[in-house]
Design brief:
Blueprint: E1 3-14, E2 22-30, E3 34-38, H1 45-53, H2 55-58, E4 62-70, E5 73-74, H3 80-83, E6 87-90, H4 94-97, H5 103-113, H6 118-131, H7 147-159, E7 165-169, H8 177-192, E8 196-200, H9 204-208, E9 213-218, E10 221-226, H10 228-233, H11 247-257, H12 269-280, H13 285-291
Parallel strand pairs: 3-8, 3-9, 6-7, 7-8
Antiparallel strand pairs: 1-2, 1-4, 4-5, 9-10
The structure holds adenosine-5'-triphosphate and magnesium ion.
Residues 14, 17, 21, 39, 41-47, 60 line the site of adenosine-5'-triphosphate.
């Protein structure tokens, strides 16, 4: 498999800070992979995103050791504008990243700066709006959009530069459950279209539905690079206290504590419900409805 992102022994220190925020981090992301990144607040998740996108060191300077390669380009060696063709980013706050007064202006802003041909820009706008579920919103004023719509516009905006890789740094943390579901629907569509995605989020349940791999950061180090299934198959008692367990993992813990079940169960809701039905027998309908009652 060809590699989209390769991070080699990356350490980083912001200017005027004695701390190393990232410490000797190495990983690779294949084309079309969707990788989740989790870690406690302040661990350096956004800093890692800035390194992947080339914001570090081109916009935010500091002391970089090691290398970041994006589609075989060393992000340190090319200007930030050039990196934008390969990797896009959507930040946490939908308000702060939208510059256009209308959806059309917003979408055209980046590619016009890059001097993309106008007809190509016009062709791409409705295509991407459809992809993020905003078909027909081209002439809409951006201030009239809901939080979820703004965040999906930010995704479309990032994709206007044709990147094959998209970083989503807590794209749903400011959103209500409906906005969150709208954004996750778009993420699932992007995944289906083969976009490589790096996703930072605290909402582990929603993440589990889309990610192929999970990277866990603690104390500036990459301490896990695994699949979500393997991650939750282990006994996590006393570990990663900052990580909210998926509801079904919490339910499994209760069932284990009361002796109803032994061994690990699936962290994926539907699989868990089936396993629980089997385990609890034919009278399990009421249990399993309670277990699966979230959605
Ligand atoms: N531009 C900056 N200049 C100096 N220090 C910074 C800068 N941005 C972040 N930091 C510091 O680097 C550390 C890591 O911050 P970062 O924002 O990467 O963490 P995070 O894991 O994304 O946190 P959160 O979960 O709160 O978003 C923090 O101590 C933060 O104060
Ligand atoms: Mg952050």
């Amino acid at each position: 498999m060809s590699q989209s992102v390769r991070v080699e022994k990356l350490s980083f220190q912001y200017n005027n800070d004695v701390r190393w925020i990232l410490k000797n981090i190495s990983f690779q992301i294949g084309e079309g992979d969707v990788v989740g990144v989790v870690g406690p607040s302040g661990v350096g998740k956004s800093t890692l995103c800035y390194c992947l996108k080339g914001i570090i060191p081109h916009v935010l300077p500091g002391n970089v050791v090691g290398d970041v390669w994006v589609n075989d380009i060393n992000t340190r060696e090319v200007p930030a504008g050039k990196i934008a063709e390969h990797i896009g980013i959507v930040f946490q706050d939908p308000e702060s990243q939208i510059v256009g007064l209308t959806v059309e202006e917003e979408l055209a802003f980046g590619p016009e700066n890059m001097e993309d041909p106008p007809e190509e820009i016009r062709r791409r706008m409705p295509e991407l709006l459809n992809l993020v579920g905003l078909g027909g919103y081209l002439r809409q004023e951006t201030y009239k959009l809901s939080g979820g719509q703004k965040q999906r516009l930010a995704i479309a905006s990032a994709l206007m530069m044709h990147p094959q890789i998209l970083i989503l740094d807590e794209p749903t943390s400011e959103l209500d459950p409906i906005g969150r579901e709208e954004v996750y629907r778009s993420i699932r569509d992007l995944k289906r279209d083969g976009v490589t995605i790096i996703l930072v989020d605290h909402h582990i349940e929603e993440m589990l539905d889309v990610i192929d791999r999970l990277l866990v950061l603690e104390d500036g180090m990459l301490i896990e690079d695994t699949t979500p299934r393997q991650f939750f198959a282990r006994d996590l008692t006393g570990k990663y206290e900052w990580l909210r367990r998926p509801q079904v993992v919490q339910v499994a813990a209760v069932l284990q504590a009361e002796g109803t079940m032994e061994g690990r169960m699936s962290p994926f809701e539907q699989e868990f419900i089936e396993e629980a039905r089997e385990l609890l027998g034919p009278d399990s309908e009421s249990h399993s409805t309670a277990v699966g009652g979230k959605r």
